Amino acid sequence: MTSASFPPRSRWVKGKATLLALSFLVVLSLVLAACGGSSQGKGSTHVLTAICSVGGSYTQNMSPFSPNVNCGVDGLVYENLAYVNGVTGQETPMLSTGHQFSSDNKTLTFTIRDGIKWSDGQAFSANDVAFTFNMLKQYPDADSGGLWQQLSSVTAQGASVVMTFTNPAPTLLPFIEQTYIVPEHLWSSVGDPTKYVNPNPVGTGPMKLKSFDAQVIKYVKNPGYWQADKVKVDELDYPVVNSNDTALLKMASHQADWTGIFSAALQTAFVSKDSAHNHVYMVPVVPVQIVPNLKNPLLAQLPVRQAISAALDRTQMSTSGEAGLEQPASPTALMPGQEKYLDASYNGKLPDFGAANAAQAGTILEGAGFKKGSDGIYADAQGHKLNFKVTVPGDFSDYVQDLQIAQQNLQAAGIGLTLNKVSDDDWRADRSSHNFDLIMTGGFFGPTPYYYLEPLLNSSHISGAGATNWAGWNDPQTDQLLKQYASTSDTATQIQAIQGLTTIMATKLPVIPVLDAIQFFEYSTANWTGWPTPENPYAIGSAYQLAAGDNEQVILHLTPA
Amino acid sequence: MRHVIRRIGIYLLAIWAALTINFFLPRLAPGNPAEIVYQRLSQHGAVSPATLKALEIEFGVNTTDPLWVQYIAYLNNLLHGNLGISTNYFPNTVTQIIGQDIKWTLVLLTVSVVLSFTLGTLIGIVVAWRRGTALDTVLSSVMTFFYSILYPWLALMAVYFLGYTLGWFPFADGYDVTLTPGWNLDFLLSAAYHAILPALTLIISTVAGWMLTMRNSMITTLSEDYVLLAQAKGLRSRRVMFAYAARNAILPSVTGFAIALGTVVGGALLVEIVFSYPGIGYALFQAIQSQDYSLADGILLLIIVATVLMNLVVDMLYTALDPRVRQERSA
Predict the structure, then answer these.
(1) Which of B32, B55, B79 marks a domain boundary?
(2) A245 lies in which domain range?
(3) CB neighbour list of residue A123: distance below 8 Å, 6 or more residues apart
(4) 23-82 of B, contacting A, C-beta below 8 A
(5) ipTM of the complex
(6) Does the N terminus or the C terminus of chain A have fewer Cβ atoms within 10 A?
(7) In order along chain B (331 residues), what is the average pLDDT of each group of 10 residues?
(8) Does residue A22 lie within any of the structural domains?
(9) In chain A, how many domains are there?
């Protein structure tokens, strides 16, 4: 290293410059910090801040018929004919005051509410309702409920809207009621409603658009709203948030009041920061289940499914897999609060699976002629071993953890289980094409258990591109009960059908319910009170948009703290 | 001149090859965007199985056109500057989405990359000049420490302590969302204030790379005879340091700098996630997750073109910086 002697004496020129630059940065940030001190300009206007989705900048999309509709459009700007509570099944008329089916269930008449105005001052009428439904006929891509597969005409007759169907269609009712109604005078010329950005939305709802920016969407109270006296929210802001962690920090520091996210750290990072104000209310909606492939000759045997179900430790899955947020499922697949759908033999009490019982699982299998091999795994008389693969999306970390628990449970009961972690795409594709032994998945949900059971169990959904009868359950009695529900508008007959179906769920195990899937809901009472609670579940509280328009009900109940 | 034209030709070929891979690769994956949007909707309430069909009509998926016909149509659209419609943000066009997010990315990342490069290179020069001294030992080891820190960890610590606990800086957003974006002082100050933490963490985590590259390259150059000659001539040491040693030693760093500037348009996903900062990285991430082919293709095209363009600029720059290159090329 001859060159070591070259450098001249120290001259701190560059070092000084760096130091200077850094201190400038510090000064600058202090100045800016002083400027940024003015927090939310509340004063006399009451601002509600909600985080409704986690992920990226907004692009404007204010058509309620777009699958990527912006937060606040469904229910807050545009309203539907009636709101149906997904927890209690209770119906609240909105733009209609009521509806009636004809005796053959092929004609449905809605009475339209009088005295409602669009936010541009024009009067709302039955013509707008008829227009909206006929627009869906013209543009099938907007008809996400598939209404026109059974509708044959929709006409306005005075203050009523009359719908006729090609066949009895009472099960379409929730999809009709949750359709958002748009003004004919503005929408008759927009063309395909899914391709219309709708930059200046004009609706009947409690809020109207104040400003749209890629980083925040703001709404203000609609003074002409037909229930304006119930609306205490002056302004509603939806800022963009890119991660659950940021959402939690915003909630914990009361920069946001309302959200709906999953996090295993809800207690420590949110509730415990201000337990007087910060609350979590997770709303159970449908079961998460392990679906067996009934084409597999072993899984097609009821005792094998019963043994698997008996061996599962659902309590541990709930506490360690789901951070205690999801509760163990009932064998009837019903949620707490849905006891009216129970068969009389249950005496109105939702049954549970009981504790994990490996011994019972063994007894069931031995009773069905299975024998335990030297490796501790049961096999049938022909030597087919009870070794199964369960398919799960690798990035659903809670499912993966649940299944690791299941793996230990089943091992103890003499059943081998391996996890087949795949991408979300493969999981969906395998599920529809019955390419699995066992698969873990949630389900559909709607105002009654029918909307969960029908896609899952109807034999007509076994094959096809979007097959939803993933197990391949083909049972004439099930199909008969589903038909019974679908062909009547009489609630008592419908409840009877569901009672039959839940008994089939509990006794024949077409799928194995594990936990109750939830809608996420976190809120703070620091600035706003009147949120839905387990004691008063007037709506599903999640800040994201639900198809039924639950957000509107929440807004109507909130008052400044 | 011939040289420039030849380079441009090679780069055009590179763009075409990248585009082609870019087109076919995502389409080989199973599933389609309609199914993914359908899945998302069905988690939020009563969704009819008919919805899937409606979405497929809407997005035009499950077309019967063979892949090569779609490929020709894609190239044709590109030639007309049409990047297509995003399925994830349907019915918005890819151009709209990119236009909306890119300004945040460009400002934050360009400033960070330029600052980090300048700072790192200057420190590298000084430290190499004074190699073996206490300054070199301390700075080099501190920098190596920063170099090996995982960026997400550094960013999370900054968010939690400087942002959330101490409250010195905002821990999220690109600006105070109660303000109206525009060319007004309040908004610009707020935007600058919100950019400090992301920029600072980006600079801290990358400055060491520039510094170490420069230091190593500089040390090699310092042992060259022409540096010795310059010293012997009695030139001022600052002139020797910059005009003789650093000018020659900086060449590898310049290449790295160009590549870094080129990838700027791809955004910085981690920054955007941890700081909830607006930018293009998140759009790309979501596009890939939801098989939004057009959007992913559009952003990747942008990255490819920017990288190639920056390489072209470096080629030109080399000619200016390094006389040897000029000589070789004229020969």
Answers:
(1) B79
(2) 34-77+205-282+520-561
(3) A116, A117
(4) 29-31, 35-55, 57-58
(5) 0.80
(6) N
(7) 80 88 78 73 65 73 72 84 80 86 89 93 92 89 86 89 89 85 87 92 91 92 90 89 88 87 83 89 84 85 87 81 69 47
(8) no
(9) 3
